[in-house]
Amino acid sequence: MDIDIGIEQGVRREIADGLSRVLADSYTLYLKTHNYHWNVTGPMFQTLHLLFETQYTELALAVDLVAERIRALGFPAPGSYSDFARLTVIKERAGVPSAREMIADLVAGQEAVTRTARGLFPVVDAAHDEPTADLLTQRMQVHEKNAWMLRSLLEG
């Protein structure tokens, strides 16, 4: 059945492609944050272990919302490691970095998701796609706050 939500199919595809990049960045950041939760050590272990858990738990819920929006627009959501690796701008990190390096790496990841989401706004705004704009705004707010909280740990 055709989708008739007031956004032309080609534009819906462009938005879904952008959301697929947001999804890939978010899932990659989820995996990295979960990895760091498992492997963090040092004097800030308890604080970071709990902070990372809070952040990866939030990301686990967020990826579902992004994938469901892609589906609502009429396109399949990417869902494999190879899809995510192709679509994400977040790079993997080999080995187990220090706690400080983990924090800095996660700041960069949070900011990367924000940039990817922000980059989709011109097409979303032009299409008057308020549901996607709302989702992106919420995601950016969370990622900017997370980046700030992580960055604060590096000061001093």
Automatic annotation (TrEMBL):
Outline the extent of the Ferritin/DPS domain.
Answer: 17-155
Organism domain of life: Bacteria
Q: Which UniProt keywords apply?
A: DNA-binding
Has the keyword Protease been applied to this entry?
no
Q: Name one GO molecular function term.
A: oxidoreductase activity, acting on metal ions
Which Pfam family, just one, is annotated for this protein?
Ferritin
Q: Which residues form the signal peptide?
A: none
Q: Which PANTHER family match?
A: DNA PROTECTION DURING STARVATION PROTEIN, GENERAL STRESS PROTEIN 20U
> Which family is this sequence assigned to?
Belongs to the Dps family.
Listed name of the protein: Starvation-inducible DNA-binding protein
Originating species? Rhodocyclus tenuis
